[in-house]
Amino acid sequence: MCAAVALCGLALASNAAAPAASAAPASPTLSRIAETGTINLGHRESSVPFSYYDGKRQVVGYSQDLMLKVADAIKAELKLPALTLKLVPVTSQNRLALVQNGTVDLECGSTSNTAERGRLVAFSTSIFVISTRLLVKRGAAIKDFADLAGRKVVVTSGTTSDRLLRTYNESRGSRIQIVTARDHDDAFQALEQGQVEALMLDDALLYGERAKARLPEDWVVTGTPMSSEVYGCMMRREDPALKAVVDRALTRLLTSGEALKIYTRWFQRPIPPRGQNLNWPPSEPLLKLYRQPGDQPLP
Chain centroid to CA 146: how far? Predict the structure, then answer.
């Protein structure tokens, strides 16, 4: 499948709505896609259940499904007979840079829309709502962030959890020993192997990591949320015409009920690679987002 520097192409069949009247919007990205018949899609490798490799090294997940449908809408918008997808693996550390430098045209994974990031890239209509919490061993003395003083906690480098926990530690003098991991897989392995006592991450991702554990019931998500955030797909800031096409496609998916069906597939049904069910019903904030889509970060 796709290595870190290799790209994989897939033919995409169109099932999108009829294209808009104009098939040549003033967009450098859309113009290049039209000329080459290729779109570069950024994906995560281990953000279960949003964007990750399954047991066959195929990219799957909630965000991946939405991104494929957006790509289908772009194909229809440009009246292309075929569209090749080039799947580009990204990490928490390099995802913004790869969008900015043009390596990736569209990234849909588990990226929080923040004001700081919004100065560097453009975010689409939001696709998910999360809260940052903790994953700990069942029966552990850690119930909330105040219990982390003097303990080792792992975060994935480059995430909002990384920044939030460091700010919390500095402002309260909590003496938390913060350990960073390259990706969510590495972070959970550090927890599972007893190298740290807690993992801080977005709650949806924590349930995803828990599902991958040898004994999922040994782990619990806990803690008063330190923040609530929305995920969005990233694009270059200098391309409002591309954002308009992406936003229209996502708004249709959210308001039509199609996104909720995709949610059910990934959060309330067995998912690859081990057939674990996250058993996590949609939250009221997420259902509100489906009813009233928007592209602004949460305050």
Answer: 28
Q: What does the alpha-carbon distance between residue 29 and residue 234 come to, in Å, rounded to a whole number?
A: 13
Give the chain as a DSSP string: ---SS--EEEE----PPPPPS-S--S-HHHHHHHHHSEEEEEE-SEETTTEEE-TTS-EESHHHHHHHHHHHHHHHHTT-S--EEEEEE--TTTHHHHHHTTS-SEE-SS-B--HHHHTTSEE-S--EEEEEEEEEETT-S--SGGGGTTSEEEEETTSHHHHHHHHHHHHHT---EEEEESSHHHHHHHHHTTS-SEEEEEHHHHHHHHHHSSSGGGEEEES--S-EEEE--EE-TT-HHHHHHHHHHHHHHHHHTHHHHHHHHHHSSEETTTTEE---PPPHHHHHHHHS---PPP-
pTM here is 0.87
Handedness of CA 176, 179, 183, 187 (dihedral sign): negative
Over the chain (299 residues), the average pLDDT of each successive run of 10 is 39 38 68 98 97 96 98 98 98 97 98 97 98 97 97 97 96 93 96 97 96 92 97 97 98 98 98 92 97 96
**Residue 279 corresponds to which tokens in the numbers above?**
């058993």
By the 8 A CB rule, do 277 and 271 touch? yes
Tokens for 223, please give them. Answer: 């803690």
Q: Which two tokens stand for residue 266?
A: 């990934």
- Cβ burial, residue 189 (10 Å; 0-12/13-18/19+): middle
| Contact yes or no for 175/258 (Cβ under 8 A) | no
